[in-house]
Amino acid sequence: MAIPRRDLWHTRLVSVLKVLLPLIALVLLSTLFLFSRKINPEDAIPYATVDVADRLRDPKMTDAGFAGMTSDGASLTVTANEAKPTAAGGTMKRVLGTLQTPDGAKTELVSNDLALDTATKVIELSNGAELQSPTGYLIQAQGFGVATANTRVESRGPINATGPGGQLTADHMLLSKQGGAGPYLLVFNGKVRLLYQPNR
Prior knowledge:
This protein has helices at 5-34, 52-57, and strands at 61-69, 75-85, 89-100, 106-117, 122-132, 138-147, 152-155, 159-163, 166-170, 172-177, 184-189, 193-196.
């Protein structure tokens, strides 16, 4: 019995494809290796942009910060571009801080330098220290001492301030809680002078 031509053609096609398709696959694979781009090790993604040897000699953290809560319920958060550990606690550079009391009032703090003393539980802000009070006063001083255990911010030396009433100078400034259930008050004392400017 003779095999129909149609079945014979189909059988021959399958036989040819069995040989041809693997050959095409081999050719494609070989071209991948022949024409592939060479890898340049210098193009690798830099996982670290810091000098490791420098970090080992001088340990520090970048984009550092800490947060805490005082005994009277105020929250204190501090962020800095750089922080280093010390025997007394630590130092920070280019500092931004926020002290928020339970009544919702926010006091903003700025300085170029910060020193944390864990023994006295005080952070010292210096070198361009400024305080923005919730009542609208911008206060500048040589430095500010900020307690971490309770709400207390005290100027180091005399202050210069500008606010809703005008320009003010004083020998000392203190932000603290008055008594157990009293309010939070910003007090200027010593030789206080106010240049009243009602239109400010």
